[in-house]
Amino acid sequence: THECLLMRQSLKQLLLQLDPEEFRQIHRGTVVAIAALDRIEKDIFGRYHAILKHQQRVLAISRSFSGQFKPL
Questions:
Q1: How many whole angstroms from its chain centre is CA 27?
Q2: What's the pTM?
Q3: Beta partners for 60?
Q4: Of 12, 25, 44, 46, which has the maximum CB count within 10 A?
Q5: Who has greater pLDDT, 71 or 45?
Q6: Using CA atoms, how far apart are residues 52 and 2, in angstroms rounded to an integer?
Q7: Around Cβ 52, how many Cβ atoms within 10 Å?
Q8: What distance in Å separates the CA atoms of residue 46 and residue 6, rounded to the nearest whole number?
Q9: Distance, CA of 23 to CA of 20 (rounded, Å)
Q10: Cβ atoms 38, 52 nearer than 8 A
Q11: Do strands 58-61 and 48-52 pair parallel, antiparallel, or not at all (unpaired)?
Q12: Could you give the CA distance from residue 33 to residue 61 in angstroms, rounded to a whole number?
């Protein structure tokens, strides 16, 4: 099961409270837990996608945030 939380603060404020070793921003409004990632894939157009564990859900990684994942 998944838990949904409603927070009344900006994503920028939230990111300041999160450990950057455990969480990464991948898009303007999306942050993922590193532990939830199965893998990062690059498509034929050079775009990166995060594939989540257990759900096999694919999330787009924007160009502005893709640099932090290229070494993975």
A1: 7
A2: 0.76
A3: 49
A4: 25
A5: 45
A6: 14
A7: 15
A8: 34
A9: 5
A10: yes
A11: antiparallel
A12: 14
